[in-house]
Known about the structure:
This protein is α/β, with parallel strands linked by helices. The chain has a single domain (about 5-210), classed as Rossmann fold, CATH 3.40.50.150. It has helices at about 5-10, 15-30, 35-50, 65-70, 85-95, 115-120, 135-140, 170-190, and strands at about 55, 75-80, 105, 125-130, 145-155, 195-200, 205-210. The protein has a 7-stranded mixed beta sheet with strand order 3-2-1-4-5-7-6, with helices on both faces. The protein is globular and about 45 Å long. It starts with a helix and ends with a strand. Pfam families: Methyltransf_3 (PF01596).
Amino acid sequence: MDKYEQYVASFKVDSDSFIKDMENYAAEHHVPIMDCVGxxxxxxxxxxxxxxxxxxxxxxxxxxxxxxxxxxxxxxxxTIERDTKRYTKAVxxxxxxxxxxxxxxxxxxxxxxxxTEIFNQTYxxxxxxxxxxxxQRFFEKYSPVIVSGGVIYCDNMFMHGVVLHxxxxxxxxxxxxIRNLKEFTQWIMAHSEYEASLLPIGDGLLIAVKK
Length: 211
C-alpha cells in the first residue's frame, strides 16, 4: 500500500467484527480478497450505479458479495465459485450474516456451467474476479446477460504490478496468464460496444459500460 492508499485507508470506518473475522480468515488461509482501497472504491461506484441485480464470477469466501449486500440493501447477487472449500466457507459466512435471501451462491466452474439460474435472467452489473488469464472468456460468456447501460467490473488488472514487466522478465509459469490479461485489456479498451476505463485503484479496476 503506497502513501496515498494509506492516507485514504486512514479515514475508513472500522469494519464490524464479522467483516474483520472474514479478513483475518482470508489472510490466514491465503484467500485473495479485494484490498481496502479497492473494495471501498468498488462499493462507492456501485452506490452510484445502484444495480438491482449483480452477477459475480469468483465468490471465494463471499467477502465482496457480503460487503456489497450490506452496502446496497436492495441489491441481490448471484455469485459463482468452483473451489469446494471456498464455496463451503462462503455459504457459512452468508448464512451467519442472514443474507441467503439476497446472495445466491452457486458451486460451479464459471467457464463450463450452463445453469438456468444464471442464464435465465439479466443483470445490471457483472463483477469478474476469478482466474485472471481467463478474463476475456468470462467476459464473452457472461456479457450477453448484462443489460444495455449495465456495467462490467474487473478486478486485479495490474496483478500486483506484474503487468508492467516485459513478458521475458516474468516467471514462465505466469507468462500465459499475464499475456492473456494484457491482451484482454487491449481488447476491451478498443471494443466498440463498451465504454471502458482502467483505473489505478487498488490492484487495478477496469470498468466497462455496455452501450
